[in-house]
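Tip: read the tokens left to right.
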């Protein structure tokens, strides 16, 4: 995929509630996570407007939170890609319901155990012994991790972004490959001269 870099100041008003935010690795540790997840992404969040402020609502190792997207982009320019639901499936998608579901995770604990469960499915020998959950009816009682939270929120908005894959093993790369989302642009901080 060819990146379309857009300065945050220009892109800000083009970002809608419930747009998918996918983050690229910034350290050797997160690069290893991206490789294990078969993707260029290591983290997922959802955009949300609150009182004229554009926020990233996400589940991190510290738990569910919302923070200013501008602060993230300023600190790590070029690491956040914006995706939008493309409507090709003919479903009605409620951005308001999806974002409300993401907001509900703020303050809740991070799903470390759920993340390890999903990660185990990438170990070659283990993959032969355990079949991944494909049915969303198998709801996990464990706290959520980032891309699982986004998948659950999208379903609350009316669309399963990754059909035939359970939310509890949905990874950022799965969301990027979903037919429901289309890449819009990559956020940079300053315009190139």
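Filled-in amino acids:
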């Amino acid at each position: 995929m060819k990146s379309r870099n857009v300065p945050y100041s220009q892109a800000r008003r083009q970002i809608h509630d419930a747009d998918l935010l996918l983050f690229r690795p910034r350290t050797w540790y997160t690069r290893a996570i991206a490789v294990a997840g078969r993707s260029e992404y290591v983290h997922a969040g959802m955009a949300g407007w609150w009182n004229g402020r554009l926020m990233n609502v996400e589940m991190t190792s510290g738990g569910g939170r919302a923070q200013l997207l501008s602060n993230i982009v300023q600190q790590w320019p070029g690491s956040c890609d914006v995706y939008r639901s493309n409507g090709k499936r003919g479903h009605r998608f409620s951005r308001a319901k999806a974002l409300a579901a993401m907001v509900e995770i703020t303050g809740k604990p991070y799903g470390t155990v759920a993340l390890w469960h999903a990660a185990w499915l990438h170990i070659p020998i283990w993959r032969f012994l355990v079949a991944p959950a494909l049915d969303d009816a198998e709801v996990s009682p464990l706290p959520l991790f980032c891309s699982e939270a986004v998948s659950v929120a999208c379903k609350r908005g009316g669309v399963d972004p990754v059909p035939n894959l359970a939310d509890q093993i949905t990874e950022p790369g799965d969301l990027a490959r979903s037919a429901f989302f289309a890449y819009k642009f990559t956020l940079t901080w300053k315009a190139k001269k």
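The chain has one domain: 7-188. The first helix runs from residue 8 to 11.
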